[in-house]
Structures are given as structure tokens and as C-alpha cells.
Amino acid sequence: MTTPGRNWAETHTYEAAALHRPTSMDELRRTVAAAARIRALGTRHAFHDLADSPGVLVSLDAMPAEVVVDPEARTATVGAGRRYGDIAPVLHDAGWALAAMASLPHISVAGAIATGTHGSGDRIPTLSDAVVALELVGADGDVVTLREGDPDFAGAVVSLGALGIVTRVTLRVEPAYEVGQLVRNAVPWDSVLGDLDAVTASADSVSLFTRWSTDVVDQVWMKTRGVTATSVAWGVAATSDQHPILGVDPAHATAQGGVGGPWYERLPHFRMGFTPSVGAEIQAEYLLPRDHAVPALEALRELGPRIDPLLQVTEIRTMPGGDLWLSPSYGRDTVAVHFTLVRDPDGVRRLLPEIEEALAPFEARPHWGKWFGMDADRIAQLYPRLPDFVELADRLDPDGCFRNAFLERTVLG
Q: Where do the DSSP E strands lie in 55-102?
């Protein structure tokens, strides 16, 4: 048992009194049952107090790390505390793959699905949409298993940690495949806004990296199953590997130039074997209906002179809609606009309300794990199943064992 310390980006110091690291399911159940307030701490990639607790925290990084594939069902059951970059090679060696990876393979499975974290692709669902079952330990130490089709399942996957300590997750898998990655530079904004659908359909997974006060999108990364990406006429083909932030050494980025490689070495933007940055940043992200994307991007371009002085890079990605209640892509095909900002807390706090005001007409939902300024009333307007989630949390955790300040401030009231 230790003190929790700080998060990855050093934007939050955990207030929890202690951090437990159980090594078995029995030890975890006893730890949860003995705690008045407890929450799970994953890989510390939440940029605020989402994973904190007024009591204690528990990490699953010392728990058994099995990966069990069911070839007939096309599923894999994994320890919830495992990182995607750890389970992916195991799946690949067994001949299997996931449909999506986030930009960072360093994040834990449970943390990613609990916050609705995503990769990119017009037809590639979020990481949480791959879940077909999950096992969690409730406040009394009992084990609960929820499966796809159960009445509570769609509310329990993107749970923000409010329902219990998730211990195992069963994910859909498919046969392993290769991916090639190409980059285009200096793509005119007119080409992007003139036919955004064509740009995002140019590969299986597309990310646009840019600033707002220029006439061009700096980079478009195109990840295609196989080696050859769709031929496009816009922009200029990159002649060497690049980092998402222009001018930064690309050594930590995944291989480009159309060289094929295993899915898990191309779908993320960063290699598992490296720390992608020193964490000197603050991240924010807003996810909006795809049919609002062009006017929303135009509104952000007008705000560009305010954004760019605090900006390292913006990433624009897409994903299809889903049915998980608190997923930011619930009920609608989605475009996500992600801001990697300099670590200037006061400046970012002043900027975010301006971004949110510009995006307010477009029903933009914030990423749960990143900075935002919206209050509970505004969030309630954006999530039609939020009352059902509150009822589910009250029913599964009537004494508030898994509640914290973040949940009270944004969701549970």
C-alpha cells in the first residue's frame, strides 16, 4: 500500500489516502468490501480527478494478466488493468486482432472503455463498443458479470468507474491483419471542408493534425488495411516519418511510408516501447454529430487566433455511433476534435469556455477523461440516457462507495 502520487501529465495530485495493489481476486474483494470509498486507478491518463477517491484507490496492475481467446465466439477475455499495448501482441501471436486502437497503446483496457475512448475510422467503433461482457466487484465485495443483451449492459460499459471495480473484460476480436500508414502534408482547408466525407473515407482510419490559423491542415494520417492506401490528389505526400506535432522527432511515432505491419503497430500513433511525450500538456476533446462537423470546424477556425497560442496540435477523427449510454458517440455518427494544449492551467481554463461556446450550437460532448468546463446541467442535455445511468448507479452502489467529486460535479449530482 502506497500513496497515489500524481497523474501522467502532472495536472492532478490524487487526494486518496492510499493506493492498494492486490495480487489476487480474493484480496481485491476483501479490499473493496473493507473500504467506505474506493475507486480504481489505471494508467493515470485522465487529466483531472475522474479516477480519484475521497477514500482509497486500488490498482489492478499486480493482478493475474491472462488473455483467454475463444476462437468460436471470436472473443478475448483480458484482465481489466492490462494495457492495450500488452494484450495486443498476445492476441496477434494467437492469430487475432482488435478492430480499433487508441492513439496511445499505453492506456488500460478498463480505463479506456469506462471513458468512451476511441480510435479513428468512419466504420471503426470506439474501444468500448468492442465489449461483449465485463466482470466487476461491487461495494460488498461480490462479483457481478454483465453481458451484451442484459438490461443494464449498455449503461455499465462506459461507467466512469461509478458502478464498481471492473476486473475482467471480454472483447470482440477478428483475424489478425496488417496495416499500412501514409501521410499527406499541407492539405488545404478548402479541400477538407469542401468534402470532409471524402477525406475521412480515404483510408480505414484517418486523422487530421492541424492548427487553426493557417490555410492548410498540417498532416493527414491514413491507415489502411493492407499496404496501399487510396490514391488522393490533395496535399503533398510526406517523404519521411513524422510526429503529429510538426518539428518533433518522429522516433516515437508508428512507422509510416506505406510499410505494412501488424495492426497493433500501426493503428496507434505512438509505439508502445516509448513514452510518447513528457506529459507537459493538457488535453481537451469534444465529440459532435457528424452532420454538424463542417460548420463546427468553421467556427473553430474563426476562434483560431485565441486557440493557437495555447495549442500544440489539434487532431480530428471520426467514428460511427453506438448504443452505450454515456459514450460520447451515443446515438450518432461522430467527429471528434481533440486539443493537445500547453500545460498552462490558467490559460486553458480561460480558453475552454470559449471553445465550448463556439461548439454549443453543435451538441458537442466532452471526452470524460480530459479537461472541460461544462456543468452537470449542460451535460444532462447532451445525454438522453443520463437519468437511466443515475438510476443504475444508485441501484448498484446505493451507499456511494464508488462516488467521487468528479461524478458529483458532472453526472450524479
A: 56-58, 67-70, 75-79, 96-97
Per DSSP, which regions of 80-177 are E strands? 96-97, 131-137, 143-147, 165-172, 174-175
- Say if residue 276's pLDDT is above 70: no
Closest CA to 203 of 329, 119, 265, 92: 119
Domains of the chain (ranges; CATH) run 67-176 (3.30.465.10), 178-376 (3.30.70.2520)
Per the DSSP assignment, residues forming a β-bridge with 222 are: 182, 206
Cα dihedral 349/350/356/357 (nearest 10): 160
d(CA 254, CA 272): 9
pLDDT for 163-208, tens place per residue? 999 999 999 999 999 999 999 999 999 999 999 999 999 999 999 9
In angstroms, the CA 220 to CA 236 distance is 10
Task: Tell which residue, 386, 384, 372, 370, has the closest CA to residue 102.
Answer: 370
Distance of alpha carbon 34 from alpha carbon 343, whole angstroms: 38
Q: What is the pLDDT of residue 226?
A: 82
User: What DSSP character marks residue 265?
Assistant: G
Comparing CA positions, the residue from 174, 181, 201, 205 lying closest to residue 266 is 181
